[in-house]
Backbone:
């Protein structure tokens, strides 16, 4: 039985839940993690109703003890982990410009998206190695690319949503840029253990109210590239950046 852990599964509309559902329907044993355990538990129950073997885990990326404890629980229950989807991510006050940005918020975003993701990966790494063919998918964004024509750091002009204000994707984009760099480093370091790791942009996805009206696509379309990266063959790519199974410019 193959086992997959997905972080940041707190909402049914989110990319994390859709990824869990798709992997579950492919026969994976699913562990969904969220910072509010009751939310992950409710979603694990929804997965179970689809015939998927699923359980929930408390994990807050800003709380290293919770990550260590979560890894200990999984190690006690399972001898290995086949897939880790680093989906959890924080984007605060996206309306802030460089000049307006609050430095404590900035630190929380980096602490979640980089330090937290890094620490989760460290803690679950021995289980991924134990599977003999571990796969890690770091959920990134075209916003963390320099050259993405729509959302890349050079090209993205920002957009305005009436209820949410101006989206500049400033600090968030820089955390995803760093995540992409971390993916390259992980790819090199993990190769000897046959653990493949790639960054995947799901594309602009309608996971929030109003996103569909400005071009966000259905979540079902966005998860295909994530599932592909999670189930790569042993000679598949590592340390790369993809969207919809195709390489994305850094
Ligand atoms: N939607 C898009 O257009 C889009 C585009 C490109 C990339 N992405 C990426 O796709 C991933 C999923 O995004 P989404 O659109 O599906 O939104 P989402 O449902 O808000 O997913 C983000 C998840 O991260 C969790 N999270 C935040 N801080 C956390 C912490 N300290 N510890 C643990 N979990 C934490 C959130 O939990 P709470 O509910 O508790 O806050 C939520 O479950 C993210 O990595 C995002 O950057 C999305």
Residues:
């Amino acid at each position: 039985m193959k086992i997959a852990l997905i972080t940041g599964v707190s909402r049914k509309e989110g990319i994390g839940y859709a990824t869990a559902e798709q992997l579950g329907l492919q026969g994976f044993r699913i562990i969904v993690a969220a910072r509010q355990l009751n939310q992950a538990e409710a979603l694990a129950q929804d997965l179970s109703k689809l015939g998927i073997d699923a359980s929930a885990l408390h994990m807050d990326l800003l709380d290293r003890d919770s990550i260590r404890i979560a890894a200990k629980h999984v190690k006690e229950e399972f001898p290995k982990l086949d897939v880790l989807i680093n989906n959890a991510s924080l984007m605060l006050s996206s309306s802030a410009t460089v000049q307006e940005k609050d430095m404590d918020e900035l630190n929380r975003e980096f602490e979640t998206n980089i330090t937290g993701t890094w620490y989760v990966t460290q803690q679950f790494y021995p289980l991924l190695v134990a599977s003999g063919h571990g796969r890690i998918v770091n959920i990134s964004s075209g916003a963390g690319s320099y050259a993405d024509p729509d959302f890349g750091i050079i090209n993205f002009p920002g957009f305005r949503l009436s209820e949410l204000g101006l989206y500049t994707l400033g600090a968030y984009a820089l955390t995803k840029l760093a995540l992409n760099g971390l993916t390259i480093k992980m790819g090199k370091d993990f190769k000897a253990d046959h653990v493949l790791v790639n960054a995947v942009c799901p594309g602009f996805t309608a996971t929030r109210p109003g996103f569909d009206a400005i071009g966000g696509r259905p979540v079902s379309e966005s998860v295909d590239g994530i599932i592909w990266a999670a189930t790569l063959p042993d000679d598949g790519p590592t340390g790369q950046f993809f969207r919809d199974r195709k390489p994305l410019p850094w």
